[in-house]
Amino acid sequence: MEAVAVIVVLIFAVLVALGVIATVRTARAVKRGVDRTVGQARRTVEDTRLKARQFAQPGPAGEVAQLRLSLRTSMRATQDALQSAAPDDASLSEALALFQRLSAHGHELDDELKRLENEPDKARLAACLPELRERTARVKDSADSLRFAAQDRARRFAEDDLETLSGQIRMEAGALRHWSDEPVAGAPGAPGPAGAAAPAAAGAPAGEPAAAPGAGAPAGERTEPGAEPRAITGRDRDGWRQPGYSWQKTSRPESTT
Fold first, then answer.
1. Measured between alpha carbons, how far is 236 from 233 in angstroms, rounded to an integer?
2. Residues 77, 129: Cα–Cα separation, whole Å
């Protein structure tokens, strides 16, 4: 009984532990989903605010908002392109590492642009704009270069795979349409090769033409081609080798009278 009780307790403890682990993992997954949703909502709100500020405040303040919007859009598009293609292409691991380093510069630049949005000194803001434009262009061009290269690589792989698949499909379609009505060589009734001579008659010497049907039969007994031969009777058999002619007369016995 004690052993059974111990086993039951152990099973219960294992089930409780599995339940706790499943609950923790579910809570973490829910938290990640919530954080992802909140982050996307915040980015959407920030981008909408920048678009409105870009048109509502012309001048240096509006240009700063435009720089931030273009920088954020380019970096986010490059990140999505690399992360979506990396699981299928191991060669993009180096590109992801480079993008992580570029993201550090992008975040630093975005923070600086965000601080300048509320700069009351318009003259100082206008003086900082040339350097900010140049840095934003450099970061944006680098991010675009990585994104375009990844997209071109994925497109090239897709075209190569499609070309290979199309060739295989053409070969399979040709194999499915390959049929022949020609008789098998050697089968009864199959014609021989074109131009082949008919086999020589049995027993005929080589090089001599085969005798025509009915040749060698006695005169008057030759059969036409295709006609059935007439049966030979005993009379025919006796006189077959000594045919009679019109000038021959049979001898008559001498009279004894």
1. 5
2. 24
CA dist 117 and 137 (Å) reads 18
Count of CA atoms in the C-beta half-sphere (13 A) of 84: 10
Distance CA 83, CA 227 (A): 92
Q: What span, in angstroms and rounded, lies between the C-alpha atoms of 88 and 92?
A: 9
CA–CA distance, 38 with 44 (Å, rounded to integer)? 10
Distances (CA, A) of 123 to 65, 119, 126, 133: 17, 10, 5, 16
Spatial CA neighbour of 111 closest among 68, 77, 51: 68
**In this structure, what is the dihedral angle of CA atoms 49, 50, 55, 59, given to the nearest 10 degrees?**
130
Mean of pLDDT values over 162-191? 74
Distance CA 206, CA 210 (A): 10
pLDDT tens profile 84-105: 888 888 888 889 999 999 999 9
Which pair of structure tokens corresponds to residue 37? 């949703």
Cα separation, 244 vs 233, in Å, equals: 17
Task: Note the pLDDT of residue 180.
Answer: 57
pLDDT in tens, 108-145: 999 998 888 877 888 888 888 899 999 999 999 999 99
Q: Would the pLDDT of 212 be above 50?
A: no
Query: Sign of the CA dihedral 132, 143, 148, 67?
Result: negative
Return d(Cα 223, Cα 229) in angstroms, integer. 6
Show the tokens assigned to 257: 């009278």
